């Protein structure tokens, strides 16, 4: 009985709401069909670009560009899809000509960017270092969508070539910048090394013989000087002893040699000596002429004695003794030896002073050695660090130059088009059959929901059972609704009016499309083409 009531309710619901459902469902479904047919076909062309690894093993030549594939693709993409490049593509292929008057250049650039799609292709492989599986980007698909298949193909092909050119340009510039940087750094280090070498040279000249390497030489020199001083001391003692002995001998010898006149020694009495000399002169003058050597010698001797006693032939003043030059050969010999010994003693003393001064210099050098060593070590460390850095930069420069040559010969990592852009034969969007099916489902769902909603808000009595529940009065029999001819006529007129309004709306829409959008004949041919595509 309960199922019979439910079946009756369902039949009543369908009977009451079928008109609204039959109006709403075809209208929505028709709108979906119109939308699916009115959407323009979008064609898509795809080019596949592979990331080719460096042909020379990295064990031999390290790559200069160490970006990850995704990072490198992104940087290249930023340059290729720059505003200037995209504006050039827009002008070259006359893209979006129907929108150029309505949209700004920025909006057109944004639109073409939306239609350019870049999808990376990844692959799994085992890492050589860790042995764990990892995912790397090995290629990427570059595609462009548009309404004209020929234009789409050319734009995609152009974009793919731009990616290759920009990749090569970026790699070449980066390698060139790296080479230039290392070259300038090498020159800067060369200048610093030269300055450091000059500092070390100046320091070594300033601290000559004070360096640690000279310590043994300084000690050896000091030892030699000490031995020389000791030998000089021994020589001085010998000379002093010899001098004392000679002085004792000298004290026993008269400076002047004995002078015998008339068998009498007059050497000790200058006056008597002078008189004797004059007497001897007078005696010789009687025998020899004035030019005789003995007379000349005697005159010289007289003059000498006269100078010693300060008297003349006519003077009777007091006799003044003056220093006299010794003429005793023995005295002169002893005096000469003593003088020679004194000269040697003075020379040895001077040599000792010089040796002592030299020892002071060598000792001062040894004392200054640790300070000089510390400063020299600091200068040497800086010099070694600069040389080590110079060697590192030199190796890097060589690697950069090899990498530059590799990039120039297309042997390094680069982009390669493995699948060129193709001419699309069928549109990829929209999926008209899916839109129609979705419209069908939406139309059913919306119409059903609308019918249920109208039924839920309808509070009228629809059956005798509902009346009985509301009034608690037994219902004898239901009386069917009697429709008069006038009501039938009114309902027909109402339907005719709605049909007329619909026709007028359709006619106005077609007129608007024909006048301002596209000719009806063209619209009809487009619809037929798109219906064929669906079929």
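^ Assign residues to that structure.
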């Amino acid at each position: 009985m309960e199922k019979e009531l439910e079946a009756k309710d369902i039949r009543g619901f369908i009977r009451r709401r079928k008109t609204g459902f039959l109006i709403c469902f075809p209208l929505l479904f028709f709108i979906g069909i119109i939308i699916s047919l009115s959407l323009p076909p979008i064609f898509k062309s795809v080019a596949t670009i592979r990331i080719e690894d460096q042909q020379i093993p990295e064990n031999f030549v390290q790559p200069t560009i160490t970006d990850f594939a995704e990072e490198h693709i992104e940087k290249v993409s930023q340059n290729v899809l720059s505003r200037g490049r995209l504006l050039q593509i827009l002008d070259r292929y006359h893209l979006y000509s129907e929108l150029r008057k309505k949209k700004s250049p920025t909006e057109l650039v944004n639109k073409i960017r939306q239609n350019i799609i870049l999808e990376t292709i990844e692959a799994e492989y085992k890492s050589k270092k860790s042995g764990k599986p990892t995912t790397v980007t090995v290629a990427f698909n570059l595609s462009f969508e548009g309404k004209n298949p020929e234009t789409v193909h050319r734009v995609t092909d152009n974009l793919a070539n731009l990616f290759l050119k920009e990749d090569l340009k970026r790699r070449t510039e980066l390698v060139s910048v790296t080479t230039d940087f290392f070259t300038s750094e090498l020159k800067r280090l060369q200048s610093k090394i030269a300055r450091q070498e000059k500092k070390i040279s100046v320091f070594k000249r300033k601290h000559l013989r004070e360096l640690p390497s000279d310590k043994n030489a300084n000690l050896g020199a000091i030892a030699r000087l000490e031995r020389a001083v000791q030998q000089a001391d021994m020589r001085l003692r010998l000379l002093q002893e010899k001098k004392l002995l000679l002085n004792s001998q000298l004290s026993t010898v008269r400076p002047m040699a004995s002078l015998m006149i008339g068998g009498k020694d007059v050497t000790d009495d200058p006056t008597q000596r002078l008189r004797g000399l004059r007497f001897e002169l007078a005696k010789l003058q009687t025998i020899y002429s004035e030019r005789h050597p003995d007379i000349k010698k005697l005159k010289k001797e007289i003059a000498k004695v006269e100078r010693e006693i300060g008297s003349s032939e006519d003077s009777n003043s007091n006799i003044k003794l003056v220093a006299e030059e010794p003429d005793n050969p023995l005295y002169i010999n002893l005096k000469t030896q003593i003088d020679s010994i004194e000269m040697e003693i003075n020379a040895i003393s001077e040599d000792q002073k010089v040796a002592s001064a030299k020892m002071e210099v060598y000792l001062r050098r040894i004392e200054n050695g640790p300070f000089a060593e510390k400063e020299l070590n600091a200068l040497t460390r800086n010099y070694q660090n600069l040389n080590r850095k110079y060697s590192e930069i030199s190796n890097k420069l060589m690697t950069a130059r090899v990498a530059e040559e590799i990039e120039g010969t297309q042997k390094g990592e680069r982009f390669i088009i493995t699948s060129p852009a193709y001419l699309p034969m069928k549109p990829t969007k929209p999926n008209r059959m899916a839109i129609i099916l979705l419209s069908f489902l939406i139309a059913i769902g919306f119409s059903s929901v609308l019918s249920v909603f109208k039924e839920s808000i309808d509070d009228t009595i629809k059956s005798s059972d509902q009346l009985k529940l509301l009034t608690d009065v037994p219902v004898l029999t239901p009386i069917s609704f009697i429709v008069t001819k006038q009501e039938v006529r009114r309902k027909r007129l109402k339907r005719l009016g709605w049909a007329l309004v619909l026709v007028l709306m359709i006619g106005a829409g077609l007129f608007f499309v024909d006048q301002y959008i596209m000719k009806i004949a063209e619209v009809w041919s487009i619809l037929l083409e798109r219906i064929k595509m669906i079929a």
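The mean pLDDT is 77.
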